[in-house]
Structures are given as structure tokens and as C-alpha cells.
Write a structure and sequence with these properties.
By secondary structure, this protein is an alpha/beta fold. The chain has one domain: Rossmann fold, CATH 3.40.50.300. 35% of the residues lie in helices and 23% in strands. It is built from ten helices and ten strands. The chain has a six-stranded mixed beta sheet, sandwiched between helices. A four-stranded antiparallel beta sheet has the order 2-1-4-5, covered by helices on one side. Helix 3 runs parallel beside helix 5 and helix 5 packs parallel to helix 6.
């Protein structure tokens, strides 16, 4: 469903601020894979996700989604294959619009816009049923302005909107990092339910090692723009945080220097 072949990306090439973010990186995801990605600051996690999303072009290599080469496609043309949830809960929704209006926008994604009347009763009933999976009571607040929701409620709604059209690939960019632990756990629970229900191929960056182990069927660790560890199945389920720290130190030759990930 996703294939990255030898992709490289350098920012500010030829200047004192040159930063090689991705170094000949290759990664393949099968249909239905749920891959968690961890790594220290500057490991290349977000750069890889942004390369997949088409936020910037890669310097070398190729990117394919469901067999289609999207390497040269600009971001808005690549978007039809993707669902994406960002770290900031404020990013994925329109604050001044109602919950049902946000869902209607997501439902009409990629469709021709007409002058027909807005949300029908049938659509409203569908949205109410969809919102029930969140277990946040939002199904009874369809006309509430999204700007009045908490960060966790907005992130859960964003997740629902990103998956409404069942994308080829779901990208989760530290989508619980800005939430308190209880709310983050709730959003991750909803994530698991939606991904499992729709068998969505998912790539999730997380700063939390425990979450990386618990969620998904495969774990990837990055360091200096490369994948240094790739584990799946029963081996992944048996991992502990100490195992990941040991693996990092073994490959990098140094201690893991991201306090936030270790403390979590």
C-alpha cells in the first residue's frame, strides 16, 4: 500500500545550516499494516511523513501509494489517497463551523460542489451514528461550533473526518502529543477502533515508546534519517521500553537523548 524506495532529503543544502534529514530510506507497508514510528529529535520521522504527504519534494528516490507513483505529485493532488491528523488539535477542523458542517466537508471531499441545499436529514443521521463511536457525546451536539470543543474532542473529530472516506493511507503525526494522558489514551482507543474497523493502512509517529509497542502490528525506529530497527508480530508484542533503549544504544553508540520519550 505504501512503498518508499531509497528516498533522501537535505534541507538548506550547501549552506552552514545544511541538514540531511532522510538518507536513502526504504520502507514498505502492506495493505492493513499499522506501523508505529519512534526516534529521537531530528531522527527524520516527521520529514518522512511530510515526504509521503507531498509537503515537499524528495531529492532522490520514489514514493508509491497503492501501486501509483506519487513522487512527482504535488501535495493537493496526492491528498486524495491520504487521511492525515496533525499534532495540533486546532489544525484539522474549522473552528467557526458546526460539527455537522465539518463532517459534511469531509464527506464531500473530492466531489463536485453544487448549489443543492446543505446537510440532509439522512446525512445528519449518518453523522450522529458515526460520532457515537467516539463515545464523547458529540452525537447530541451536531450544531455546536467546533471551536467550543476541548482539544481531545477536536482531535477525535479530526480523526473521524480524516477516515470518513476510507483513505488508502492514514498518517498520524504525533496526534496525541498535545493532549493530557487521559485524553491521549481515549484518542488512541478511538484510533485503534477505527483503524481495525476499516482495515486502514496506517503510519503513526509517536513520542511515547509504550504507545509504540502497544498499538499497531509493526514498529519502526529511526535514527539520523534511516531506519535502524523494524520489528513486527509476536516479537513486537513482547518488547519493553528497555529493549528499545538498548537497541538504540547498540546501533547509535550512544544513549537515547529524548527525555520526553523516556519519561513517557
Amino acid at each position: 500500500m505504501l512503498e518508499l524506495k531509497n528516498i533522501s532529503k537535505t534541507f538548506n543544502a550547501g549552506t552552514v545550516n545544511e541538514k540531511r534529514a532522510l538518507c536513502n530510506l526504504s520502507l514498505s507497508l502492506k495493505d492493513g499494516d499499522f506501523v508505529t514510528v519512534i526516534g529521537g529529535n531530528g531522527a527524520g520521522k516527521s520529514t518522512m511523513l511530510n515526504a509521503v504527504a507531498g509537503v515537499f519534494p524528495v531529492d532522490a528516490g520514489s514514493i508509491s501509494i497503492d501501486g501509483v507513483d506519487v513522487t512527482k505529485l504535488v501535495e493537493h493532488k496526492r491528498a486524495k489517497y491520504l487521511g492525515r491528523v496533525f499534532q495540533d488539535p486546532m489544525t484539522g477542523t474549522a473552528a467557526s463551523m458546526q460539527i455537522e458542517e465539518n463532517l459534511a466537508l469531509a464527506a464531500r471531499r473530492g466531489m463536485r460542489r453544487t448549489l443543492k441545499s446543505g446537510i440532509t436529514k439522512t446525512e445528519r443521521d449518518q453523522y450522529r451514528e458515526l460520532l457515537k463511536i467516539l463515545d464523547l457525546g458529540l452525537e447530541d451536539r451536531l450544531t455546536a461550533k467546533v471551536g467550543l470543543l476541548s482539544g481531545g474532542q477536536r482531535q477525535a473529530l479530526t480523526l473521524l473526518m480524516a477516515t470518513l472516506k476510507k483513505p488508502k493511507l492514514l498518517l498520524l503525526d504525533e496526534h496525541t502529543a498535545a493532549l493530557d494522558p487521559k485524553t491521549a489514551a481515549k484518542v488512541l482507543e478511538v484510533t485503534d477502533r477505527i483503524v481495525s474497523r476499516d482495515s486502514l493502512t496506517t503510519l503513526m509517529i509517536t513520542h511515547n515508546m509504550k504507545d509504540a509497542i502497544v498499538h499497531g502490528n509493526r514498529l519502526v525506529m529511526m535514527y539520523e534519517g534511516q531506519i535502524i530497527y523494524d520489528v513486527a508480530g509476536e516479537e513486537k508484542k513482547g518488547l519493553k521500553v528497555s529493549d528499545l533503549l538498548h537497541k538504540f544504544e547498540e546501533v547509535s553508540g550512544g544513549a537515547f537523548a529524548n527525555d520526553r520519550m523516556i519519561l513517557n
